[in-house]
Amino acid sequence: MHLILEGIVPRTFEIWIEASKKRKRGQELRHGTFQLGQLAKPLVEDLAGLGGLGADIKESALEVPAALARSPENIYQHYRSYRAQNWFDFLQLFAHPLLDGRASLEVRKNLALLARIYSVSTQGVLTEEDIRYLEGAVLEFVKSYENLYSDPAVCTSNLHGILHLADGAKNCGPAWGYWQSR
């Protein structure tokens, strides 16, 4: 669970912030010596868009069900202090509606696929059909992620680790039963 919630999701958000800040300063979108994705402009429209996303999440606090452990924080201001539960809330509740109009369709589809992978892999019981789904969905997610964020620096051990998710599910059952930290 932490592989996704404290690895892939926060790193992706950091990439968006980095791209937005460089675009605002008029800098070339490069990370190291490699180009930071062909779709860098559509990742997130601008720095203000990310700030607006954070403000929208914070404003939604009054409408968020009380079943959530905490009121959501402004992700743009506080993402570095986010924990797994905060990233879960972002991935499963806030990202999809709030990124509409702020991020490209490709980015939103990639994040939605990750959310579905997380949901399937952590459900109570996994069927063989679920495991087959995970095998295909994880490969599709990683290929899409590498295409969106073409810099090798974004291809972390967490991104590699998710490739083994279906095998772990075959051998050990749902991820909640065996996943440790990153």
Automatic annotation (TrEMBL):
<protein>
    <submittedName>
        <fullName>Uncharacterized protein</fullName>
    </submittedName>
</protein>
